């Protein structure tokens, strides 16, 4: 996602100056995507140049607030109604690493897989603890003094946003572990089948000796 | 360091003999302390259920020792083992294993009554346990009148009732949707936070993530485990 779309969506709620935008963005995404203020001002400059936002004067401290133009408002509406483009999602380093690992001689692929799985499980555990804190906090409905790690606004909506962001990271970690499991069992199967078998699709169709998994489960 | 509740020392389990011999578990050592929840993951056939059954004394190792709260299971007779299991170990199985002709409260009270507690007291404790897992209102209902998630909670109450400090769960979230499954994990987590030791077999990474540690099994051998502590940076207040 671009910073541009995020700032436009926030400005649709009320006019803000750069530091406010940055704080709002981070509060609503649980600090998962930190922005620096320089990035925010550069982006605002470009949005103003393109006629999507306009400055509405400075406050006594000289901070310029921005609001959406009509064009900006249309841009936000279009963003909410169109899907996120997956084609342009950057390639994942792990995928590249494993693709290389299975084609480069002398790499211990099972160890690469296990090392990653252990690291991803640790990450998942940390995320789950954060989630548990967030859930306990909303169960207690106590003010944030008791739960300094949890963000909330009056409606508890920031809490909800934070939980959903955490869930997204958990789903992603879970998918990664499942994929690693799949890579591992595929490697076991390939090893049993022996080299060369992969290149003859017929071998798959005639395959009745399920030596690895079938016999054990 | 907390008290060790469960200890497996170099445990091996071999099924069958000669040609048909299968090594289900080979030289596994593992400790679970009070307050700790440990998850066991691994492909089908890697020995997860075998490990859990050995840990709870439902099965005996070919070689090696299993110790629960300082008591080596191999030194106990049949009766002693049964008593220890009833008093000290709670099991949660994938298929719940509730007795259909008994209500939820009767299912939960059964191990207490078998242990010689009076019916009234056993029932009170059973209802307490059902309340703990959030299904107190189902005390007088029969299993076939409950959803899968409710039955699973009753099964967990049964595993937690009394003074059991070791809880063993084999795929306890198997047939449940993700919210219900998560509720089961939260109950297990809370019980461990309150001082029990837990061992949880699961295929699902998001469920294993509730544990303090994950032990990975492959072909009966522990291939890795996530030790270490939580990344402090993640737990720091970000306000
Ligand atoms: N009673 C038995 N007799 C012979 N072999 C057995 C017996 N019980 C288990 N095994 C074998 O021991 C191995 C480990 O089985 P176990 O049930 O522990 O696997 P698991 O990891 O729990 O698998 P799953 O994920 O499918 O439940 C398997 O190869 C299994 O076939
Ligand atoms: Mg099993």
Automatic annotation (TrEMBL), chain A:
<feature type="domain" description="Transcription regulator PadR C-terminal">
    <location>
        <begin position="91"/>
        <end position="187"/>
    </location>
</feature>
<feature type="compositionally biased region" description="Basic and acidic residues">
    <location>
        <begin position="207"/>
        <end position="217"/>
    </location>
</feature>
<dbReference type="Pfam" id="PF03551">
    <property type="entry name" value="PadR"/>
</dbReference>
<protein>
    <submittedName>
        <fullName>PadR family transcriptional regulator</fullName>
    </submittedName>
</protein>
<dbReference type="InterPro" id="IPR036390">
    <property type="entry name" value="WH_DNA-bd_sf"/>
</dbReference>
<dbReference type="InterPro" id="IPR005149">
    <property type="entry name" value="Tscrpt_reg_PadR_N"/>
</dbReference>
<dbReference type="InterPro" id="IPR036388">
    <property type="entry name" value="WH-like_DNA-bd_sf"/>
</dbReference>
<dbReference type="InterPro" id="IPR018309">
    <property type="entry name" value="Tscrpt_reg_PadR_C"/>
</dbReference>
<feature type="region of interest" description="Disordered">
    <location>
        <begin position="198"/>
        <end position="217"/>
    </location>
</feature>
<dbReference type="Pfam" id="PF10400">
    <property type="entry name" value="Vir_act_alpha_C"/>
</dbReference>
<feature type="domain" description="Transcription regulator PadR N-terminal">
    <location>
        <begin position="7"/>
        <end position="77"/>
    </location>
</feature>
Automatic annotation (TrEMBL), chain B:
<dbReference type="GO" id="GO:0016887">
    <property type="term" value="F:ATP hydrolysis activity"/>
</dbReference>
<keyword id="KW-0813">Transport</keyword>
<dbReference type="Pfam" id="PF00005">
    <property type="entry name" value="ABC_tran"/>
</dbReference>
<dbReference type="InterPro" id="IPR003593">
    <property type="entry name" value="AAA+_ATPase"/>
</dbReference>
<dbReference type="GO" id="GO:0022857">
    <property type="term" value="F:transmembrane transporter activity"/>
</dbReference>
<dbReference type="InterPro" id="IPR017871">
    <property type="entry name" value="ABC_transporter-like_CS"/>
</dbReference>
<keyword id="KW-0067">ATP-binding</keyword>
<dbReference type="GO" id="GO:0098796">
    <property type="term" value="C:membrane protein complex"/>
</dbReference>
<dbReference type="InterPro" id="IPR015854">
    <property type="entry name" value="ABC_transpr_LolD-like"/>
</dbReference>
<protein>
    <submittedName>
        <fullName>ABC transporter ATP-binding protein</fullName>
    </submittedName>
</protein>
<dbReference type="InterPro" id="IPR017911">
    <property type="entry name" value="MacB-like_ATP-bd"/>
</dbReference>
<dbReference type="GO" id="GO:0005524">
    <property type="term" value="F:ATP binding"/>
</dbReference>
<dbReference type="InterPro" id="IPR003439">
    <property type="entry name" value="ABC_transporter-like_ATP-bd"/>
</dbReference>
<dbReference type="InterPro" id="IPR027417">
    <property type="entry name" value="P-loop_NTPase"/>
</dbReference>
<dbReference type="GO" id="GO:0005886">
    <property type="term" value="C:plasma membrane"/>
</dbReference>
<keyword id="KW-0547">Nucleotide-binding</keyword>
<feature type="domain" description="ABC transporter">
    <location>
        <begin position="6"/>
        <end position="235"/>
    </location>
</feature>
């Amino acid at each position: 996602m671009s910073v541009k779309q995020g700032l436009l969506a926030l400005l649709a709620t009320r006019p803000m100056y750069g530091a406010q935008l940055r704080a709002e963005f981070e509060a609503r995404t649980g600090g998962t995507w930190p922005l620096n203020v320089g990035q925010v001002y550069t982006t605002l400059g470009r949005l103003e140049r393109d006629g999507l936002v306009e400055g509405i004067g400075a406050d006594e401290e000289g901070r310029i607030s921005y609001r959406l133009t009509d064009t900006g408002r249309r841009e936000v509406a279009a963003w909410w109604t169109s899907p996120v483009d997956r084609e342009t999602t950057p390639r994942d380093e792990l995928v590249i690493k494993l693709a290389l690992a299975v084609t480069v001689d002398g790499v211990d692929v099972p160890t690469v897989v296990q090392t990653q799985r252990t690291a991803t499980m640790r990450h998942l555990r940390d995320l789950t603890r954060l989630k548990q804190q967030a859930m306990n906090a909303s169960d207690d409905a106590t003010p944030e003094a008791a739960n300094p790690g949890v963000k909330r606004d009056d409606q508890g909506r920031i809490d909800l946003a934070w939980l959903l962001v955490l869930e997204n990271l958990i789903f992603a970690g879970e998918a990664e572990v499942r994929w690693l499991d799949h890579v591992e069992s595929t490697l076991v199967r390939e090893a049993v089948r022996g080299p060369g078998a992969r290149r003859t699709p017929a071998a798959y169709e005639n395959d009745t000796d399920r030596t690895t998994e079938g016999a054990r489960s | 360091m907390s008290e060790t509740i469960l200890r497996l020392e170099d445990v091996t389990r071999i099924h069958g003999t000669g040609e048909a011999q299968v090594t289900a578990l080979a030289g596994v050592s593992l400790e679970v302390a009070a307050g700790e929840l440990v998850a066991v993951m691994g492909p089908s056939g890697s020995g997860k259920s075998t490990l859990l059954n050995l840990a709870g004394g439902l099965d005996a190792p070919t070689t090696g020792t299993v110790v629960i709260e300082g008591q080596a299971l191999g030194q106990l007779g049949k009766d002693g083992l049964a008593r220890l299991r009833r008093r000290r170990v709670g099991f949660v199985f994938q298929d719940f294993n509730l007795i259909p002709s008994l209500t939820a409260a009767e299912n939960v009270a059964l191990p207490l009554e078998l242990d010689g507690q009076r019916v009234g007291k056993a029932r009170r404790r059973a209802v307490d346990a059902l309340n703990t897992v959030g299904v107190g209102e189902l005390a007088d209902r029969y299993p076939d009148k409950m959803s899968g998630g409710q039955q699973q909670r009753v099964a967990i109450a049964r595993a937690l009732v009394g003074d059991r400090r070791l809880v063993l769960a084999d795929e306890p979230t198997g047939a449940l949707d993700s919210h219900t499954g998560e509720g089961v994990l939260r109950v297990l987590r809370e019980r461990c936070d309150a001082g029990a030791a837990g061992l949880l077999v699961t295929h699902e990474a998001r469920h294993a993530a509730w544990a303090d540690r994950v032990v990975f099994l492959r072909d009966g051998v522990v291939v890795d485990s996530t030790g270490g502590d939580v990344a402090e940076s993640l737990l720091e207040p970000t306000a």
